[in-house]
Amino acid sequence: MKRHALSTRIWHWINALSVIVLFMSGLNISNAHRRLYWGDWGFDPSTAWLFVPRFPGWATIPNYYSLAGARDWHLLMAWVFSLSLLLFLIAALINGHLRRDIATRASEWRVAPISRDIRQHLRLDFGGHSGRYNSLQKASYGLVTLILLPLMILTGLTMSPAMNAAWPFLLDLFGGRQSARSIHFICAWLLFGFFIVHVVMVLLSGPIRQLRDMITGGHRDEAA
Amino acid sequence: MKRRNVLAGLAALFTAGCTKIGKTDWFADVIDATGRLNRAAHRALGGEQALAPEFTKADVSPFFRGNGSIDVDTDAYRASSANGFADWQLSVSGLVQKPLSLSLDEIRALPQRTQITRHDCVEGWSAIAEWTGPQLSTLLAMAGVDDSARFAVFRCADTLNGGNYYESVDLLDAHHPQTIIAHLLNGEPLPIINGAPLRMRIERQLGYKHAKYLTGIELVASLDDIGEGKGGYWEDRAGYTWYAGI
Predict the structure, then answer these.
(1) What is the pLDDT of residue A52?
(2) Which CATH number fits domain A6-216: 1.10.3290.10, 3.10.310.10, 1.25.40.10, 1.20.950.20?
(3) How high does pLDDT run on average in chain A?
(4) B30 to chain A: which residues are within 8 Å by CB?
(5) Residue among B11, B31, B123 minimizing CB distance to A32
(6) What ipTM is given for this predicted complex?
């Protein structure tokens, strides 16, 4: 059996590309109004809960300030990102990836196995390449694919005045457009944190093999 | 520090490529198609005449920010303003059976709609206010729109960076129940920073569509010959998308 299903591999790389473009064009959009608020409305510094720094050109798409250019990339890639996530989740439900590899069992939420996994990680011992995820991997992949990425889509839609007319319940769900904007920003940085940890983990656990397996599929070691 | 530099270097390389792609003609075509897709998706999901959420007086923000043009720098406008805009005329022209020219009194005498809505700037901020004015559909019915008309173009008194401000919407948004020609903001005549004496409200789209200092509504079959052909001041000047529902 392959370590990574074909659908998982295709999605992984499309998702990586679209999320990077979304993040970097999002930083350019953030530069247009560098304050965050809670609730329905917000424009004044006195009601802001966060003053966001200006992001430099090397971190934004395009590489100079252009709200129009950044929105072009952002709204185009939002389609690629959303549709590929939807197809991946459907495939992961059908092929058992979610149930087998991501879903956790009650027995995994005890202190002993979690602290064992944390101690192993701290020793940079990632348990070989069995293809099975430990509790920390399950929790982080589950959090990202089932919570953070869908939240990015929903909070993004909530910022659209036309979507507010079509699906007004989204405003109630997030507590208003400016709250949705704030949650969008927070989740974007949580995803950036995941990206950094994910890349560091790959670099520490045999990057050539990890990259190769995410392209060719690799083999799941059933005996492990 | 070195690793951070590697990450910054990779990001810089990546965005340089994206920036180059962003300047190609084919990318512009893809973006135009995305705009049409967004508009179709929004209307498919909510219905063509879905209403923007309306709020209560308790939700109104304490001040309504003025952005873009916040005044009109002409003697004629200053004189008109000093005179309470008594001489202001709003024309309805172009592909109509009966062109109109209406004074503020005539506009106030039409059936009115009052709505408390949220205004979203493309930059990201929002403000909530109560707007009052006749529905654009009332004026369009009075003028009688020709079958050949496809867009309503909003002509404005203000200039920005030397260019005439204008905007446009399709006839579906023009006939939307919440598309009104506002002359009151929170029950008072429009302040100058917010577009006195008249401004459009296009509630399902971003702020730059809500043309201020409105002087005329022109019905046209094509936007190609208006301004630089992209349907609005910011569309021509800065490349903002014509459809601004997101």
Answers:
(1) 98
(2) 1.20.950.20
(3) 93
(4) 76
(5) B123
(6) 0.95
Q: Give A101→chain B minimum CA distance, Å.
A: 30
A181-194 pLDDT per residue, tens:
999 999 999 999 99
Pairing of strands B126-133, B184-185: antiparallel
> Using the beta-carbon criterion (under 8 Å), do A167 and B45 form an inter-chain contact?
yes
Cα–Cα dist B66/B193, whole Å:
5
- Mind giving me the DSSP string for chain B? -HHHHHHHHHHHHHHHHHHHHHTSHHHHHHHHHHHHHHHHHHHHHH-TTPPPP---GGG--SS----S--S---HHHHHHHHTTTTT-EEEEEESBSS-EEEEHHHHHHS--EEEEEEEE-TTS-EEEEEEEE-BHHHHHHHH-B-TT--EEEEEEEEEETTEEEEEEEEHHHHT-TT-EEE-EETTEEPPGGGTTT-EEE-TTS-GGGS--SEEEEEEES-STTSTTSSSSHHHHHH---S----
> Residue A182 has which token pair?
């704030």
3-class secondary-structure state, position A103: coil
Residue with the two structure tokens 């009104």: B180
Residue A104, helix vs strand vs coil: coil
| Among B83, B245, B100, B112, CA closest to B178 | B112
